[in-house]
Amino acid sequence: YHIKSQFNDDGTGQFEAHWDIHPGWGWAGWVKTLMTIGLVFPFIAVTSRRLHDSNKSGWVQLLYLIPILGWLLMILFMVTEGNEGRNQYGDDPLKAEE
After folding, report:
1. What contacts 15, CB < 8 A, 6 or more positions away?
2. What is the distance between the alpha carbons of residues 78 and 47, in angstroms, rounded to a whole number?
3. pLDDT tens sequence across 41-63
4. H/E run at residue 74
């Protein structure tokens, strides 16, 4: 961030600010955008499967849209143990095959 300041004799002056670096522009920005788009769908799928382990709908992911509180709730849902046995979404993935 570059700041250029010029003062007159009476203490007043003009102030200009210029961004010297433009992060995300050019080919690196396109690569980052394509990677983000490519990873969004697997992220949603894995999160839905994890929520199904604890008998919650995949729509619970909409909590991500609520800043801080929603994020904390989603972290809590992701780290807590799923329910034991079968639920409406299928068998317990941790249950050993007999």
Report:
1. 3, 4, 5
2. 8
3. 999 999 999 999 889 999 999 99
4. helix 69-79
> Residue 79 corresponds to which tokens in the numbers above?
């780290």
Q: Could you state, in order of their start, the residue ranges of all structural domains in the chain? A: 23-98
Q: How far apart are CA 16 and CA 47, in angstroms?
A: 46
Q: How far is residue 76 from each of residues 44, 57, 67, 83, 89, measured CA to CA in Å?
A: 17, 15, 15, 14, 20
Structure tokens at 27: 């080919």
Q: pLDDT digit string (tens) for 25-41?
A: 677 778 888 899 999 99
